[in-house]
Design brief:
By secondary structure, the protein is of the alpha+beta class. Helices cover about 20% and strands about 30% of the residues. The protein has five helices and 15 strands. The strands form four sheets. Strands 1, 2, 7, 8, 9, 13, 14 and 15 form an eight-stranded antiparallel beta sheet that branches. Strands 6-3-11 form a three-stranded antiparallel beta sheet, with no helix packed on it. The protein is globular, with a radius of gyration of 20 Å. About 20% of the residues are buried.
């Protein structure tokens, strides 16, 4: 079944959500999310994982000797240092697959409330993405195309107990599936980020395509009809 975005939401503190509606986007690097394990709702030590390999899928040879798979204690994690530098802008996506599985009801997981008391609802997702791309293109005209877009799409969630293969910036383990994340990734030169690695982008006021609600109210305000 195809999965596509129906609407985009951004949860956060009221102050930050109003700033976002004014057009200011703050994009943290992947390493930031790996380093905030104390915040279970946002932190993920596996961000930036390149490959995740179950021991049954491995063949390890040292010289002429093949290592017994039973001697491999746990899955192998492979990381690439460059991936840690990518800057992300993350949003909550109301998507077709989840809505259909919930009988066309929008159900917000209780853990989402930890992200903040306010919610920015994007009424035109395509236009929102276009404005980000336009702002990047305009900035790149001055910077000689130094900012590279690495993609924008729904995050795919996989089962850590069974999955073996590539991960990357658009794949996460399914204990985070409640976040229904849509993310946009950029490769940003270090000198364009602040001292903590954050990339700040001004896309201009977006109040014409967004509306702010209280997080506790949004679940009752979303109405989806299906056949």
């Amino acid at each position: 079944m195809d999965n596509y975005v129906l609407a985009l939401l951004k949860f956060g503190k009221t102050k930050h959500i109003r700033e976002l509606q004014n057009g200011i986007l703050y994009m943290n690097p992947l390493s930031y999310f790996r380093g905030i394990e104390e915040d279970k709702s946002r932190g993920d030590k596996n961000e930036g994982l390149h490959r995740f390999l179950q021991k049954d899928s491995l063949t390890i040879t040292i010289g002429d000797q093949i290592i017994n798979k039973e001697d491999i204690v746990k899955p192998v994690e492979i990381r690439l240092s460059k991936v840690q530098d990518f800057n992300l802008f993350c949003m909550y996506a109301i998507n077709s697959k989840t809505i259909k599985s919930n009988n066309f009801q929008f159900i917000l997981d209780d853990r989402i409330y930890k992200f903040g008391d306010a919610c920015l609802a994007v009424q035109d997702g395509d236009e929102f993405i276009n404005r980000i791309k336009l702002a990047i293109n305009n900035k790149n005209k001055v910077l000689n195309k130094r900012i590279k877009t690495k993609g924008s799409k729904l995050v795919e969630y996989v089962d850590k107990k069974n999955y073996s293969g590539e991960m990357g910036i658009f794949k996460k383990f399914n204990n985070y599936s409640y976040q229904h994340e849509y993310r946009i990734a950029f490769d940003v030169p270090e000198d364009l980020r602040n001292e903590t690695g954050v990339f700040k982008l001004d896309i201009g006021d977006i109040s014409d395509i967004t509306e702010i609600f209280k997080t506790k109210e949004i679940e009752n305000l979303v109405d989806i009809k299906g056949e």
